[in-house]
Structure formats: structure tokens, C-alpha cells
Amino acid sequence: MSYKKIALLLLICFTTACSFAQTLDEDGEIKYIKKMYSNILTESPAHDWLHYLCKQVGGRLGGSPEYAAAVSYTTHMLDTLGCDTVWTQAVEVPYWRRGAIEKAKIINSNYVGTLDLAVTALGFSAGTGALGITGAVVEVQNFEELEALGKDKIKGKIVFYNRPMEITRLNTFHAYGAAVNQRTAGPRKAAELGAIGTIVRSMTVKQDNVPHSGVTSFKNETPIPAVGIGLQDADLLSALLKKESNVNVNIQLSCKHMGNRIAQTVIGEITGSEKPDEIILVGGHLDSWDLGEGAHDDGAGCVQAMEVLHVFKRMGIRPKHTLRCVLFANEENGLFGATEYAKQAKLKGEKHLAAIESDAGGHVPSGFRMDAAANIAKESYNQVKNWRTIFASLGLWDIQTGGSAADISRLKDQGTVLFGYRPDSQRYFDFHHSANDVFENVHKRELLLGGGAMAALVYLIDKYGVR
Ligand SMILES: [Zn+2]
User: What structural domains and CATH numbers belong to the chain?
Assistant: First the structure.
């Protein structure tokens, strides 16, 4: 090779290296993002927003008056934090209401006599009438066992699903995923075989006696009463069934399906300075279960998403792309807000470059899970991998593909790169869908660090693109 050619080659290498270095100034970005973190840790009102949502609004099932109050509050907050536009998107949702009565007891046992059990109605459970329902309990671990028993042994009985979340799974969401079908589909499958009621072991790994709720779906079957039971009482009932062949339980519930109502998804945005038609979405879901205050699930995610826009405003960062905060309606009872949002986005031809959702609690941040349509997945993941050193400097070690979050998953087929924000999962199911999901159980610093993690990702996507 001639000297000229070598010189030319060196020049090309040098300019490529320089342009790459200019493209991503790692040290500079780490410094700048740490400034964002400092600003969030000292200035963010997100913890106060969460306090209001929990203590002034409380649990907020889609379609309820409490949900409407949450819409009013967050709309007002998005407006005051300086969004260019704030609006709501209406969607029809099914409204189920928990009644004042939710009781269960073992009756006339040879060993324990009559004994109260800690239960709570599952969403879309039928009520029982004043006298309740009484039946013999049949315990199963899974649908195979249920089907093997068949109509003969299930008809007229109360089916007790008692498969625990596996404590050996290191990520509790995986344990939840492997156990939750007994809650979502268990009552329906029991009803198909003529069961008169269902008791489901709560989805938690905490060995207390606090029952957890959550949605169950009946499709075409007439709903039957269905309750979640605390773990200590689940173990007690199971032990009793091993000693006594005929254990009868009475369940009384005054819950009711109220028909359909209109609920609103809340949206606020800062218009992009260079690419206003390309949207970076940050969000969470505004509805919650009604037993606690919807603090971790998903008040935390909502205020973290709002905080992303607010820190851009406080620091005077004008995003190139449009930053849109979306607080989805009715995730818990069937993703109605998210489905409507994706439908409207498609109809309007909106382009969502990326969507980031926080819906895994307000615990210590660990990273993000990415998902995208097959044709863009690799490219977008490679781009995000370039930022690994930056993320690692923020304690965000866990950047992987596979899964994102429920609401934003509806945008996958529109070419959006999806990110599920991931905090540490170990204690999430101590609170999830239970009376324990209250403001006091969210740690302010951990909540704010989560807002920082999301703001850092949005900042990098806005500046460098995502594919
Ligand atoms: Zn949630």
C-alpha cells in the first residue's frame, strides 16, 4: 500500500473515531445526567404528587368517582408543570365496585369449629346475596388437576386454587407470571365445571395474612363469587383439608358489576423543537386497585412519568422530539385506556418513536426491558447498548430485551421502541393489589431515583435517537 493510501486510511479512521466520539460524549453525558439526578433529588415534587394521589384520592378503580378525582388532579398538575398541551381521552370501561361486605369462614369443622378467613373479592367477582354461599372446598394446584376431577367432583363445590408463587425464582415477576392464571382464569374454569365459588391463594411471597385482589375474567360464563385469601389462612385451610375430608366454607360478598362508565386517559406534552411530529412517550396507569391507595401500583409510575417532563422544564431543556406524558385509564380491569390510545394514535397517524412505562413499583431502579417489532428490535437494542456505561454509572445495570410494560405494549405494531422501567422486584408483591399498597410503603429517594432513570433514558433518546 502506498503512503498516500495509508495516510488516507488513517484519516478515515481518525475522522470516524472523532465523529463517533462527538456522537456520544460519554463523560459529558454522565456529568450532565448526574446534574439531572441532583435536580430531581432536591427539587422534584413527585413525592408530594404521590401523597395527594394516595391520601386525597385513594384507591381508584377505572370508572369510579375516585378515578375521576385522580383525572382532575393530574390534569391540573400537568398543566401547572408547564406542558404546552394537556388533554384527556375518553374511553368506555367496565365498572365493578367492591361492597362493604367481604367475609369468609370455615363452618363446623371437627378441628377448628367456625373460623373467619382473611379474604377479599377479586375484580368482576359476583356478589353472594345476604346469606352468602356455602359449599365443600376442593383444593387444586392447577387446571390439570381441576379438569381431572371433572364436573362430577366440582359441581356445587368451592374450588380452592392453592399454587404458591415460587420463592426460588429470583425475579418475583416471573413467579407472579407462573402463578397468576389461577386468579385470572381460575374462577371461570371452575364455573364451567359447575363450581359455586372460588378461593385463590394470594399472589405474594410475603408470609402474612393480607389478601390480594386483582382482575378475574368470566367471558361467557355467569360470574361466580371469587376471593383471594391471605397466605396464612390458605395454608391453614390446606392443612385442614388433609385432616378432614369435608371442609365447608361460607362466603359473603356484596360486590357488584355496575355496568359501563366513561373514564379518561390523561395526556400532557411538551412540543418538540426539531421533530414535533415524533413522540417520546413516558407513562404509567392512573387507575389502581381499591384496597390500598395504589401507591406502588401505579401511583409511583404516574408521578415518575410526570417528573420526567418537569425536570426538562426545570432545567430549561427543550426536547427535540415531543415529550408526551400519558397516564392510562383502566389498566387493571382490561387495558381499555391503552387499547383506545393505540387505536387513536393509529387513526391520527401519530409516530411514537419510543415509549417508556413505569409499572413495576417505586423501588430501587435496576434498569429497563426493551421490546420492539422484529424489523427494528436489533438495531434499537444495539443503539441502547452504546449507553451502557452511562447507565452503569447511574446504577442501572439491568438492560435487556424481552418484555416492556402492559399499556405501552399496545404500540408495538406501530414501530415504537418500548421500554419497561425495572426497579428491584423483591418487595413489590408484598404490596401489589392489597391493603398494603399505601404511600407509607414508598421510599421517597427510591421513587425519585426511578424518575431520574426514566429522565436519563428520555434525554438520551431525544438527543441520539433510538435506532
Ligand atoms: Zn400496575
Answer: 25-96+259-464 (3.40.630.10), 99-254 (3.50.30.30)
